[in-house]
Amino acid sequence: MQTDSLPRSEGPVQLAIRMRPPWRFIDEIRRFVESFCACAPGCPEHREAQLAVAVHELVQNAVPRAGQGDVELLLDVDPGIDRVLVEVTNPCTDAEYDELRRRVERMNAQPDALVHYVETMRSAPSHVRGGLGLARIRYEGQLEISLRRDAAKVTVVAQGKLKVPPPRPPEKNAGTTPEAKPCCK
Amino acid sequence: MLQVNQEQFSAKLSPLSAGIRVLFRGNISTPDPASVLNPFVDAVHDRAQESGEREVSVDLKDLEYCNSSGFKSFIHWIRRIKEMPEERRYKLRFLTSSERKWQRTSLLALTVFAEELVEIQR
Fold it and tell me: Could you tell me the residue ranges of all domains in chain B?
């Protein structure tokens, strides 16, 4: 199909995927999301990889909790209101949800995404998997993270502006003190 | 253990005439890559320490992706360097590819984590 002559819409574009584990789908989804964002109207070039990283980390977090259930991905890119939204939904026990909720609350209590990310790098045990992904999404993807609980499922919502400035080297001493300014927000 | 060969990624030490270089390739996206990467970086660290390196090149040009669990191995490596007496510490120079757009943002945070030990080369 030739698309060159078609009008390039500036309206929202949406991607929805429902998948079952295993892990091997994750790389394919990340690559597809990066390509999808490259085609999405109004998506800055540097944003493609940031959103692909966010999707990868959220889906990777979801798969172990999903068991035999589905993992659902929704990506909404809306240049009209300058917003990008990523939602990943998976089955989740009450205990898993409570742990996740506490983690997100702790993260959001630190207003500076870079400070929190660096603190997490310092404190997360290197021999235990997990613990860094949400902080990475929040800082690198410049996305705010929240949760939604629905029956026996949890949806992790990551949303932010579509048009953000490209990343730049942090200021000297950024991320080292609670007063440090965010470099990319 | 100076080499890792997994289905999706590999890592190996490549001695140079001056200094050492570590090459990462593929996709670090398995659930627990640190279980094989931490022993690898420990072995590289020991080698660098023995030979008194001032810098180790970490070549990521052929690394398509690294998930946060894999990223922890770089953090583990930096922690090992920080444990050394200051005068014996060496730098990690990350060699990156402009085609791997994630590398630019992901490595920025590492420079904040260990400004004096991490350099990014594009």
Answer: 3-121
